[in-house]
Structure formats: structure tokens, C-alpha cells
Amino acid sequence: MRSRPVILFTALSVLTVGLFLLDLAVGAVRIPVGDVWAALTGGDCPRTTAKIVLNIRLIKAVVALLAGAALSVSGLQMQTLFRNPLAGPYVLGISSGASLGVALVVLAGVGSSIGIAGAAWLGAAVVLLVIATVGHRIKDIMVILILGMMFSSGVSAVVQILQYLSKEEALKAFVIWTMGSLGDVTVPQLAILLPSVIVGLLLAVWTIKPLNLLLFGEEYAVTMGLNIRRSRGLLFLSTTLLAGTVTAFCGPIGFIGLAMPHVARMLFREADHRVLLPGTLLSGAAVLLLCDIVSKMFTLPVNAITALLGIPIVVWVVLRNKSMTV
User: Fold this and answer.
1) Is the pLDDT score of 228 beyond 60?
2) What distances in angstroms separate CA 293 from CA 21, 182, 298, one per listed residue?
3) Could you tell me the pTM of the whole model?
4) Quick one: average pLDDT of 124-143?
5) For residue 110, is pLDDT > 60?
6) Cα 175 from Cα 204, distance rounded (Å)
7) If 0-12 CB within 10 Å is exposed, 13-18 middle and 19+ buried, where does residue 226 land?
8) Rounded CA gap, 81 and 272, in Å?
9) CA-to-CA distance for 104 and 116, rounded, in angstroms?
10) E-assigned strand segments in the chain
11) Residues in Cβ contact with 316 at an 8 Å cutoff, skipping those fewer than 6 apart
């Protein structure tokens, strides 16, 4: 591996660890980073500080780390699979599909963690399958993008109907969920979120070679012996686990999946997914931790911070990519 990726991986890893510790330090009560480290390692620190760090803030920081990595990697997979720089779980409607699944469960009054996760996985998988089927027949990336937005709008309309027909308590719970939050995940939910994201990321690593071959188009990939159907299935399963699980427990968090793969491409100047995938993972984890820190400092929803960060990157991608201009 060349020196530039090694230096960048080291810098991103150190940055991610630093932001993780800072996320644990920032909040309504400011805690020195030294005390945070002591609480994590069992060192000497005030008992109240240890309770705040370990019982309250640690889960949220871990969720931010996992969500940033999961959404970023799923966005990278979609951009490569559809050969579309503006593809992502939020833009293509995959997050909306997961939202529909969650709406059906929450608004029906079935609030178990496994039920919410399962509904989100199913909703994300259905939308992803529809888009993939359309994408196989239509090669125009703008048409696929527009169709993805249409699916997203259609799913949102169905969700609005369900909200209109639901009871007040269920509606309140769902509306709060739609705002997106990293701090509402409980320990039992984290027990589902953590292994699901890890499995999704392991599947993503498994698909590195197919992703590299798909960069040159499906016809070339087939001539190189790639089983397209099997590779697509693995990519769909990975994306469903990553985007669906995060959406189920954190709500729809936009722009991370769309923007972070482009940030990694700018940093590493690589198209090779052996470098790009871990680079995207670290970039997404670091950036969502940063967004969480900013949201706590200014008492703002994390979705607002991710949008303010992601929109300029999307504009840059549109202006830079000549094929996206009219």
C-alpha cells in the first residue's frame, strides 16, 4: 500500500478516536477528556462522571460511530452498483422504504425492537429490489435517480396516510422518530443494531472485488467471471442491513450516505474499493460524530447538521460531473 493511503488511514483513525472521546465530553455537563478516558478505562474519576459517561453518553457515541460507518458504506455501494454519483440510501428511497416499514409497525402499536428492525429491513429491501430491477433495464442514471425520488415521494405519501389514520399516542411516537436521533437507542436495541451493522460491513468487505469489477460495467464484469446475480444479492443484503437497521433505530438521517463516499474519493484520490471502502467507513464515522458534537453544542437536530454539511458536497458533485448537467 502506498504511503498516502497509510497516512490518511492513520490520520482518520486518530481523528475518529479523538472525536469519539470529545463526543463523550460534550453535553449539558462538560466533562474533561481526561476524566472521560478514566471512566472508560476504570481509572480514578468522580462517580457521577463515570455514570454520565458510561450509562448515558457512551451508547449515543457508539450509535453515531456505527450509523456514520453504515450509512457511508451503503452509499458507496449504491453509487458503484448503479454507477450514479448521486445515488445513496436517502436519495434512492431506500431509507423511505425502511421508514414505511417502521411506520407500519409503530403506528400499529407494535413497538418491539426486533419488530421495528425487521420491518425496516423488509421495507428497505423492497424499494431496493424495485430500483435494481428498473436500473437493470434503464441505463440512464438521471432516469434512475428521478425514479428513486418518485418512489421516495410515493412511500412518503403512504406514510402520511398511515399517520392520518393512526391514534394520537402512536402518531406522536412516530413523528419523534422521523426527526432522527442518535440518543434514543436503548441497550436492547443496541444489541440488535451492533451485530446487524457488523454483518452488513463484513458483507461489504466481501463485495470489494465485485465492486471493483462493476466500475467498468456489468458486461466487463461478466467477461471476468463475475456472477452478477450473486454479487447483486450480496450488495442488496449488505445495504439493507446497513441502511435499514440505522433507519429503524435512529430515524432517517440524510446526506451522510450520499456525501461521504465523495469525501473519501477526494481525500484518497482512489477508485479502488480496497482503499475507498475503509476510507469511506472512517470518514462517515468521524463526520457523524462531529455532527453529533455540533448538535449537542447548539441544541440542534442532528439531521439539520448533516444536511448543512452534505448539501454543499452534493452541489459540488453535480457541478463537477459533466454527465449530470442538462
Assistant:
1) yes
2) 10, 11, 9
3) 0.89
4) 74
5) yes
6) 32
7) middle
8) 14
9) 9
10) none
11) 262
Q: What is the spatial distance between Cα 64 and Cα 61, in angstroms, rounded to a whole number?
A: 5
Residue 212 Cα distances to 52, 124, 129, angstroms: 44, 24, 21
pLDDT over threshold 70, residue 322:
no
- Three cell numbers written together for 85: 454519483
Q: Quote the distance between the C-alpha of residue 44 and its chain's center.
A: 36
Report H helices in 58-140.
Answer: 58-81, 94-106, 113-137
Q: What is the rounded distance in angstroms from the CA atom of residue 56 to the CA atom of residue 70?
A: 22
Average pLDDT over residues 41-67: 93
Q: What confidence category does residue 67 fall into, taking pLDDT thresholds of 50, 70 and 90?
A: very high
The answer to whether the beta carbons of residues 89 and 257 sit under 8 Å apart is yes
Predicted local confidence at residue 325, as pLDDT: 37
Residue located via cell numbers 442538462 = 326
Q: Distance between CA atoms of 205 and 179, rounded to whole angstroms?
A: 31
- End-to-end alpha carbon distance in the chain: 39
For the cut 70, the answer to whether the pLDDT of residue 218 exceeds it is yes
Q: Are 137 and 153 in contact (CB under 8 A)?
A: no
Pair 221, 146: CB distance under 8 Å: no
CA dist list (Å): 144 to 149, 217, 221: 9, 16, 21
Cell of 131: 430500483
Contacts of 207 (CB under 8 A, 6+ apart): 77, 231, 234, 235, 238
SS3 of 9, please? helix
CA distances from 67 to 166, 196, 198, 287, 307 (A): 29, 11, 11, 10, 15
- Tell me what pLDDT residue 323 has: 47
Closest alpha carbon to 291 in 129, 88, 85, 60: 60
Residue 288: CA count within 13 A, CB half-sphere: 33
Whose cell is 428497505? That residue is 124
